[in-house]
């Protein structure tokens, strides 16, 4: 117990602390060989293409080859798909393998941590029996679903709010003529 107190009373060397912090942060980031990944992936998004991409027959092929080598994906099929993508501007299935692999690379853990935090808010001890599909749907509704476009389309179709006083009143059935009133009269 005495050794623990002496360790607690020692002062922390700031230089050592910041060096350790820097090393730990560098270990969490991309390695030096992966620093080119963001640049290489730009060729997969038309908004980063030059205006005369049709004239440059081999545009982006070096980057796609580098991505395939780094991510261990068969190059030949992906390159064919990339060439088709350049000409037709439509993403073929052979190129989707590369795009989906790139999209699965975590840039930081913040997005995952937010997801787990939200999952903990939805999956409480009283709702511990939710299925994975239900939990996934609830998380989608909570974060990805944006109802504004659906609400606008509802109004454009001529529908009204439930609180709208100018809409037609609902025709209510007279309760005295209903089948249930006959049953109640029997009692």
Explain the overall architecture.
There is one protein chain. The protein is an all-alpha fold and 187 residues long. The protein is 57% helix and 0% strand. It is extended, with a radius of gyration of 30 Å. The N and C termini lie far apart (81 Å).
Q: Care to give the gist of this entry?
A:
With 187 residues, the chain is mostly helical.
Structural topology:
Layout: H1 2-9, H2 14-28, H3 37-41, H4 61-71, H5 75-88, H6 93-103, H7 110-122, H8 132-143, H9 148-156, H10 179-186
Helix pairs in contact: 4-5, 5-6
Domain HAT C-terminal dimerisation: 98-143
Protein name: HAT C-terminal dimerisation domain-containing protein
How many β strands by DSSP? 0
Question: How would the global form be characterised?
Answer: extended
What's the end-to-end separation, in Å? Answer: 81 Å
Whole-angstrom Rg? 30 Å
Biggest β-sheet description: none
Q: Mean pLDDT, nearest integer?
A: 77
Unreliable stretches (pLDDT < 50, length at least 5) are none
What portion of residues is helical?
Answer: 55-70%
Q: Helix/strand/pairing class, anyone?
A: mainly alpha
SSE order in H/E notation?
A: HHHHHHHHHH
Strand residue percentage: under 5%
Number of helices: 10
